[in-house]
Amino acid sequence: MRGTGNGGAEGPTGSADRRLRVIWNANAGAKGGLPTNRTGEPEIRDLMRRHGLGDDLVASGSEEEAVAAIRDARQQGLEGVIAAGGDGTVGLVATQLLGGDTALGVLPLGSVMNIARMLDVPRDLDAAAAIIAAGHTRPIDVGVAGSEPFYESASVGMNAAIFKEVQQADEGDYAGLARAIFTAFRFRPARMVVRLDRGTLRTRALMVTVSNGPYTGAGFTVAPHARLDDGLFDVNVFRHFSKLDLIRHFVSIAFGRRAYSPHVRTYRSARVRIEGIHRPLPARADSRDLGETPVEFEVRHGALPVYAPRISAPAGAPRDAAGSDSAS
């Protein structure tokens, strides 16, 4: 782990007394074992200098080193910790900052960057650094599965089973793609009980997603109207899909596209419990395997301060706790 300073050098858009630390994951920006981002330490240091972000850069060689550096930043009372990496790096930094006043910033170096997109942080590094330099923060919600936080979306059923295999393909095991297709075609709709704040839903569905924000996985828009600051999950129930229809649906919402299906029913709730009626069902949250149902999810409202652009009004559709259907 390499790091220097606590901030310091004044830049064109920053301030000399900004106390920030950048956690850089040099391995960010790879899919299937192939690099998708070649930004190196000299480029990051130059970016920090030009935007007045100080000179405290930690190049982490492991998760343990990164965690130690983030905890040290909190103990020192630094203003912000900046995740320079992909969604995994952003999630790691965010988790260590929960429950405190130190803000999360994002320099997007990953291949997908769902969290950055949900915060309206652009992929352009200069534009992202300018947002941090401006110093505007806002609190966002965080999902919790059991005791573990998540930032994008959780899922139960077919989606969880497929993404487990897709993630292995992302890590270089290309047979995972074939296993994902096989899983998709053999998975059958399951009877579930979905317990929400305002009632209980009994349904037969291929899958249920519990979303903190709009995007998950490879940029899939699973919950186009989900917001990070309303204290509610978007709970989407995927019913009456054929296997081919569902695959077409996922293709249509990949990479941030917003096509949506009338077969998806949306509910809104701050707490969710999902149980399989006849058999336990696979469950995931972000890229983490949760095992099998029953599983419980809860929103921690405004739990994480983040550097983000100023917004004049909430985006998305009008919100209410019941959503498009009422549970009974």
Task: Explain how this protein is built.
By secondary structure, the protein is of the alpha+beta class. It folds into two domains: 116 residues, Rossmann fold (3-Layer(aba) Sandwich), CATH 3.40.50; 156 residues, Tumour Suppressor Smad4, CATH 2.60.200.40. 26% of the residues lie in helices and 32% in strands. It has eight helices and 20 strands. The protein has a six-stranded antiparallel beta sheet with strand order 8-7-20-17-10-11, covered by helices on one side. A six-stranded antiparallel beta sheet has the order 16-15-12-9-18-19. α6 runs antiparallel to α7. The termini are far apart.
Any chance you could write out the topology, listing elements then pairs?
Layout: E1 20-25, E2 30-31, E3 34-35, H1 41-50, E4 57-60, H2 63-76, E5 80-85, H3 87-97, E6 103-108, H4 114-118, H5 125-134, E7 137-145, E8 148-150, E9 153-157, H6 158-170, H7 175-186, E10 190-196, E11 199-205, E12 207-211, E13 215-216, E14 220-221, E15 233-238, H8 243-253, E16 264-269, E17 271-276, E18 282-285, E19 288-292, E20 295-307
Parallel strand pairs: 1-4, 1-5, 5-6
Antiparallel strand pairs: 2-3, 7-8, 7-20, 9-12, 9-18, 10-11, 10-17, 12-15, 13-14, 15-16, 17-20, 18-19
Helix pairs in contact: 2-3, 6-7
